[in-house]
UniProtKB/TrEMBL annotation:
This is Subtilisin-like protease 3. CDD domains: PA_subtilisin_like, Peptidases_S8_3. Coiled coil: none annotated. Gene3D superfamilies: 2.60.40.2310, 3.50.30.30, Peptidase S8 propeptide/proteinase inhibitor I9 (3.30.70.80), Peptidase S8/S53 domain (3.40.50.200). It holds the Pfam family fn3_6.
């Protein structure tokens, strides 16, 4: 008997016609199947692509080949070398664990010649990818009694591998007081003299640096590693603010650093070498706060390396990218990766601007000088005198009188802290940093060189209106220190990359958001007089939060697959903020699923998800064939020859993912059916019912059955969801969102999936 139910789209008012609402064209959803080495992808804040090519025409290529047959003497390296031309070329890396192939310096002609050799699968040029806390354990609710920390023993015995810029091993966040030695399976190497039971491994995979210990000359790696698994450090702060005991998400987990990045970024070939080593060393989780622009998975090194890692049971947590708020800007889109976006926490380092007319505007700054006199001073906007001085870039304030004044500068052009030095040098007393329109309400607490306040775009406009309508505009700045419990939080950062997924539009990404704005964590250099902690923002900061939380869950549930842990994190997440409203974005409008994915991580709930949407690695192979990749393209990812015609392929919407993304178009007659299987990881005898809300106009969603009755642990039950629409005249592609939620009979557990329907 078929029991059908219309499940409602939760936000009927949240009908989003993306192309219209953002006044920008929707990204094309077609696969890019040709890769043009000469073509540079547009360079944005943290994403860039460059090719290592020198004047002799040699450049580094990643070459993927079938594995050697079992009776090949001397194994991989000899087999790999058999592909190399006799002259000039050079083998850089032989990969053996997560990739079948190598990196080598080759000419374009060399690569063409290789393509004719048996066993060749795929080759693409190396590219440069970009690098994309005291308080966050409390904000995330894992530090309170009876919490996940207690339940998972702080992540003890779990090994987190971090691919980043290296680490400062002597930082107090990496002390190992009270930590046991790593588990016996650990086979890694330490290139420092001072590794210990916290920092158990450290290797340099930056080409040309392999003999040097992987010290962090950038700061990024020390920050991310300590966020994932930093030890408790009392009295940490940033120049007197945000004081408290700092700790990573999994303070008793072991850390291994694989240095694959420098200040200019990270090369594919080095990243693959790091992933290859980490998996063979025995890490449980890989954390990559780096990424590039979208590519088909068979030319995306992180996607390829992550596939091999996930097949071996290693969870791979990656940054979503910092190319927001435009749509279609994600990195790390493969369904076997946990893709992490960034949002604010409920702590601000508050500064308040008070205008001569009494108007007040709250902003942020980490530098909060004690002796500053908060008296009214003349206020000036250089941009109203000479438009090229609006951002206070170097040299721009010449001929503009800012002496003794409060100066308002627009964000953009140059580093935010650098603007402060320009203002200070020109004699300005204080700076108001005003966001650009795209940055909305996301403000950053920086270590400014003068009294300053970073305000939102809207507030900046109001301050400028006041300036232009007053003959003698005045302003004072008040420093209010560190405020906790600020609402609303979380709010997504303007920069966090947005879906839709370009590599495969049928998988909704990002998966989850976590703390990534104004995050305090370990830093290798002194900040101010005494502290080695720094506050920085990015999806790079959100990623290690999720990595550490995954470590805690791995400790509590050693038998859960990477897909099960991802499902637990996603279906238990929060979709509301600390005001009880649906999570907002940087414009303070409701954030859509292309921004938040399943929502904001709730670690304690993720420990008891009730049901999980599990995926066996073999399903990803069926999925790759369903993408209509060629056999060679699929084999490039799977590290073994795959013939798609011999296996059953599935479409992306049929992958057993914890979220739903479907398209209703003329080609499917505005109807599609998808199936899911949920596994009971809660009480053996338990019943879940579907949660129902009023239906949307024009789109229906029928779930069958509407109730799932489990009688034993690990039992699997299936359901189907039929999507259909009679509305085939929307004038372009529009997206509808809703939620599909299974609620346990005692209402203690909700297993919630975001659902996105694209209609054209
Ligand atoms: C180009 O690369 C080759 C191989 O690594 C190297 O021998 C050569 O010196 C390089 N040439 C330049 C100009 O950098
Ligand atoms: C941790 O959990 C145990 C039981 O699981 C309990 O006895 C203990 O009080 C808890 N400790 C804290 C600090 O909550
Ligand atoms: C405005 O600034 C630019 C760059 O600093 C300068 O070249 C130009 O002369 C200035 N214009 C005026 C009217 O001062
Ligand atoms: C793959 O090809 C089949 C048959 O032509 C088509 O129905 C399907 O939509 C294609 N899938 C993708 C992801 O392009
Ligand atoms: C398309 O859907 C309509 C309405 O459900 C139905 O009447 C029609 O037969 C379908 N056409 C095809 C080709 O399936
Ligand atoms: C789509 O619209 C056309 C023209 O408006 C109509 O003839 C057709 O029946 C519609 N199809 C569906 C599935 O509603």
């Amino acid at each position: 008997m078929l029991i059908s139910y219309l499940l409602a789209f939760l936000y009927v008012s949240n009908y989003i016609h993306l192309a219209k609402s953002l006044n920008q064209p929707l990204p094309s959803l077609k696969h890019t199947t040709t890769i043009n080495a000469a073509q540079k992808t547009s360079v944005s804040l943290h994403q860039s692509v460059t090719w290592k090519q020198n004047s002799s025409g040699l450049q580094t290529y990643i070459v993927l080949v079938h594995p050697p047959s079992e009776n090949t003497p001397n194994g991989c390296e000899k087999w790999y070398k058999s592909f190399l031309p006799a002259t000039n070329s050079k083998l850089i890396y032989s990969y053996t664990n997560v990739v079948s192939g190598f990196a080598a310096k080759l000419t374009h002609e060399d690569v063409e010649e290789m393509k004719t050799k048996p066993g060749f699968v795929h080759a693409y040029p190396d590219r440069l990818l970009a690098l994309l806390t005291t308080h966050t354990p409390d904000f995330l609710g894992i530090s309170s009694a009876s919490s996940l920390w207690n339940g998972s023993n702080f992540g003890q015995s779990i090994i987190i591998g971090v691919l980043d810029t290296g680490v400062l091993p002597t930082h107090p966040s990496f002390n190992d007081q009270g930590m046991p030695p790593p588990p016996a399976k650990w086979k890694g190497v330490c290139q420092f003299k001072n590794c210990n039971n916290k920092l158990i491994g450290a290797r340099n995979y930056v080409q040309g640096q392999s003999s040097k210990a992987p010290f962090d000359n950038v700061g990024h790696g020390t920050h991310t590693a300590s966020t994932a698994g930093g030890m408790f450090v009392k009295n940490s702060d940033i120049i007197g603010q945000a004081t408290g005991t700092a700790a990573g998400m999994a303070p008793y987990a072991h850390l291994a650093m694989y240095k694959v990045c420098t200040d200019i970024g990270c090369y594919d070939s080095d990243i693959l070498a790091g992933m290859d080593a980490a998996v063979s060393d025995g890490v449980d989780i890989l954390s990559l706060s780096l990424g590039g622009s979208s590519r088909p998975f068979y030319s995306d090194s992180i996607a390829i390396g992550a596939f091999g890692a996930v097949e071996k049971g290693v969870i791979v947590s990656c940054a979503a990218g910092n190319s927001g708020p435009s749509y279609g800007t994600l990195s790390n889109e493969a369904p076997w990766i946990l893709t992490v976006g960034a949002s604010t926490i409920n702590r601000v380092l508050r500064t308040t601007v008070k205008l001569g007319n009494g108007q007040q505007f709250n902003g942020e700054s980490a530098y909060q000088p004690q002796g500053f006199r908060s008296i009214p001073r003349p206020l000036v906007y250089p941009g109203s005198i000479n438009s090229s001085a609006a951002t206070c870039k170097i040299g721009s304030l010449k001929g503009i009188n800012v002496r003794g004044k409060v100066v308002i500068c627009d964000d953009g052009d140059v580093d935010r802290v650098l603007k402060g030095s320009v203002v200070k040098k020109a004699g300005g007393v204080a700076m108001i940093l005003a966001n650009q329109a795209v940055e909305g309400y996301t403000t950053l607490a920086s270590v400014n060189v003068l009294p300053a306040s970073h305000v939102s775009y809207e507030d900046g406009l109001e301050i400028k209106t006041y300036i232009s309508s007053n003959p003698k505009p005045m302003a004072s700045i008040f420093f209010q220190g560190t405020l906790l419990g600020v609402t609303p939080a979380p709010v997504t950062g303007y920069f966090t990359s947005r879906g839709p997924n370009q590599a495969d539009p049928s998988i909704l990404k990002p998966d989850i958001i976590g703390p990534g704005v104004n995050i305090l964590a370990a830093w290798p250099f002194l900040v101010g007089a005494k502290s080695r902690f720094n506050m920085i923002s990015g999806t790079s900061m959100a990623t290690p939060h999720l990595t550490g939380i995954a470590a805690l869950l791995k400790h509590s549930h050693p038998d859960w697959s990477p897909a099960a842990i991802k499902s637990a994190i996603m279906t238990s997440s929060e979709i509301t903020d600390n005001d009880g409203n649906v999570i907002l974005d940087h414009t303070l409008n409701t954030a859509d699923f292309f921004t938040v994915g399943a929502g904001h991580v709730n670690p304690s709930k993720a420990n008891y998800p009730g049901l999980v949407y599990d995926i066996k690695p073999i399903s990803y192979v069926s999925y790759l064939c369903g993408l209509n990749y060629t056999d060679k393209q699929v084999s490039a990812i799977t590290r073994r020859p795959i013939i798609c015609s011999t296996i059953q392929s599935i479409s992306g919407s049929e992958l057993n993912y914890p979220s739903f993304m479907v398209f209703l178009t003329a080609s499917n007659n505005y109807t599609t059916v998808v199936h899911r299987t949920v596994t009971n990881v809660g009480l053996p005898k338990s019943t879940y019912t579907l949660e129902i809300t009023p239906p949307p106009i024009g789109v229906s969603m029928i779930v069958n059955p509407k109730s799932l009755k489990f009688t034993k642990a690990k039992q699997e039950l299936q359901f189907s969801v039929t999507f259909s629409s009679t509305n085939n005249n929307t004038g372009g592609l529009s997206f509808f969102e809703t939620l599909l939620t299974w609620v346990s009979s005692d209402k203690s557990i909700t297993v919630r999936s975001p659902v996105m329907v694209g209609l054209s």
